[in-house]
Amino acid sequence: CSHPPRALNNSSENKAKGNSSDIDFFVLTMEEPPRDAAGEAAEDQESGTRLVGDDEIMEMEIPKVMSNEAVKMSGVTFAADGHSRGADHTLRSQDTNTTIAGRKINRHDVKNVFLDSNTTGIVTPDQIVRIKRMHDRISDGVIWDFNYSCLLTVASVVAGIGLATDSATTVISSMLLSPLMGPVVGMSYGLIVWDLPLIKRSAKTELLSLAYCIIFGLIIGGCCFWTRMAKVWPTAEMENRATRSTFLSGIPIAFFSGLGVALSVLDDQTSSLVGVAISASLLPPAVNCGILWVMAMVKDEDWNDFDFQNLITGEDVDVDKKTNYSAMGIYSLLLTIANIVMVALGATLMFRIKEVLPVKKTVFWEDLKIARRIYKGRALNSESGEALTVEQAGILPSGRQVV
């Protein structure tokens, strides 16, 4: 044979024709096959493979479940996700900095972003190591441990002081100290790979953190309401997080910040993550809510003055006319909740977009698909060809690595 075999992934072709298959297969093509004396196509009696002429291509289906030895003997390099790669584009699983070259995006790629992925594929030991590392990195930001509680306490105090003294610099500092982005990323990642325990734990941590910040706001408000400083409340920093217009404008800001969160986390772009933390502003509105509610109790305000219909059609809080601390506190709380939800949705969408679209990316984005297969029970062991469970892969449902 004058030309070496080349491998093509036939799963995309099958999908284009409307044929669905849980397990993809490879098509091994060989150009310029041997011919018999008559110039006609010859047939190998032992293998049953039909050898055709120069103008045709020999095809034979090779199961996707192959051992590492079989892959090496075939002379074809298969990537972890089932796609073939040439010698210059081989995905080296142990190299986490490996980038995958992209191609032109077509309408089918865009459509696949919104379609459920239920394919079955092989998983190699190197991929499992990478997935463990990715899970541990994300799940570490969800765990309520000593470091998390200390950062949350420090950020809440700094935010409260900044809001009470009308210091924008201090408030921004609290955003950088805040660990609230960790559980949000955990929820988004859990939704992508369908790790339900991780989703539940992330949501629980985020809700407890939200209550924690409100309590610290109540404490700071209770310590300061009798001082001369409280006579100028609400400060400009308080007002900026306690109006209807701020709430509505914060929704798109939080969503697009979520898009940046996903890129920053998996691509290790720390500088971008700093900007996202400032733009999302998850912690200060929660602390602001507690401070304003203390003032509402001190002023003995009527808590029924707030009308939820005002969120869409009503008027903003007019602090010049009459300060309604209870309504401002509710707006601050709603702003916090909206920020959390929209950041999570934006991050989830970006995780999916960059996973599916054929753009240049690191190998971690390809691992999202592999992790989903493991958690959905659609992963196959690369050595035995048997189904691979989460326990067999050594990854706990919460994302923690088995020791």
- The number of helices is 15
User: For the residues shown, what is the average pLDDT?
Assistant: 74
Strand content: 5-15%
Low-confidence stretches: 1-96, 397-403
Number of beta strands: 10
Indicate the overall shape.
elongated
Strand line-up in the sheet with most strands? 1-2-5
Provide the fold topology:
Layout: E1 6-9, H1 11-16, E2 25-30, E3 42-43, E4 50-51, E5 58-63, H2 68-74, E6 99-100, H3 107-113, E7 121-123, H4 125-139, H5 146-165, H6 168-177, H7 181-193, H8 196-224, H9 236-239, H10 244-266, H11 270-280, H12 283-298, H13 325-356, E8 361-362, H14 363-375, E9 379-381, E10 387-388, H15 390-393
Parallel strand pairs: 7-9
Antiparallel strand pairs: 1-2, 2-5, 3-4, 6-8, 9-10
Helix pairs in contact: 3-13, 4-14, 5-6, 5-8, 5-12, 7-8, 7-13, 8-12, 10-11, 10-13, 12-13, 13-14
Task: Fill in the keyword field for this structure.
403 residues, mainly alpha, single chain, disordered N terminus, 8% strand, three-stranded antiparallel beta sheet, disordered C terminus, three-stranded mixed beta sheet
Detailed description of the structure:
This protein has 403 residues and is mainly alpha-helical. 52% of the residues lie in helices and 8% in strands. The protein is built from 15 helices and 10 strands. The chain has helices at residues 11-16, 68-74, 107-113, 125-139, 146-165, 168-177, 181-193, 196-224, 236-239, 244-266, 270-280, 283-298, 325-356, 363-375, 390-393; strands at 6-9, 25-30, 42-43, 50-51, 58-63, 99-100, 121-123, 361-362, 379-381, 387-388. A hairpin with a 6-residue loop joins strand 3 (42-43) and strand 4 (50-51).
